[in-house]
């Protein structure tokens, strides 16, 4: 039996190719998730992982909890931006996704957003006033 050389360009058809793309210079793996950027409505998570969307690590094939790494908090023009790599495989340290959460106050409202390959995308706006002006009915 002939052994393939290390420089061979032939790839076994049984080898799984992981689909990986980069966002802000961080590789994210779409083969580890059920659905890319699922719509989460108004559920904005500052931390944690949406494990129902996690199919398992494409590298080690294990489905376990995630490690939160590279967490950073910065403020720009009154807006808090929290980013981290929460979706790092606990077993092999494969980066699955990068999580971004923002919080800001605009006029009388608190605004939240979340964007993550695993956790999804979401937006929420909450009034800081005792009575939400959007919920008031017009009196004639």
TrEMBL record:
The keyword Magnesium does not apply. GO terms for biological process: fibroblast growth factor receptor signaling pathway; positive regulation of DNA-templated transcription. InterPro entries: Churchill_sf, Transcrpt_activator_Churchill. It comes from the Eukaryota. GO terms for molecular function: zinc ion binding. Gene3D superfamilies: Transcription activator, Churchill (2.60.40.4240). Keywords: Activator, Developmental protein, Metal-binding, Transcription, Transcription regulation, Zinc. Pfam families: Churchill (PF06573). Belongs to the Churchill family. This is Protein Churchill. It comes from Capra hircus (Goat). The gene is CHURC1.
């Amino acid at each position: 039996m002939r052994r393939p050389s290390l420089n061979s360009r032939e790839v076994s058809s049984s080898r799984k190719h992981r689909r990986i793309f980069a966002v802000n210079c961080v590789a994210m793996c779409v083969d580890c998730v059920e659905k890319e950027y699922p719509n989460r409505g108004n559920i904005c998570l500052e931390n944690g992982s949406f494990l129902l969307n996690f199919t398992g690590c494409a590298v080690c094939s294990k489905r376990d909890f995630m490690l939160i790494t590279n967490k950073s908090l910065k403020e720009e023009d009154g807006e808090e931006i929290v980013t981290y790599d929460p979706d790092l495989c606990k077993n092999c340290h494969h980066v699955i996704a990068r999580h971004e959460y923002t919080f800001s106050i605009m006029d009388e409202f608190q605004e939240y957003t979340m964007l993550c390959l695993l956790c999804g995308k979401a937006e929420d706006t909450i009034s800081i006033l005792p009575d939400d002006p959007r919920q008031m009915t017009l009196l004639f």
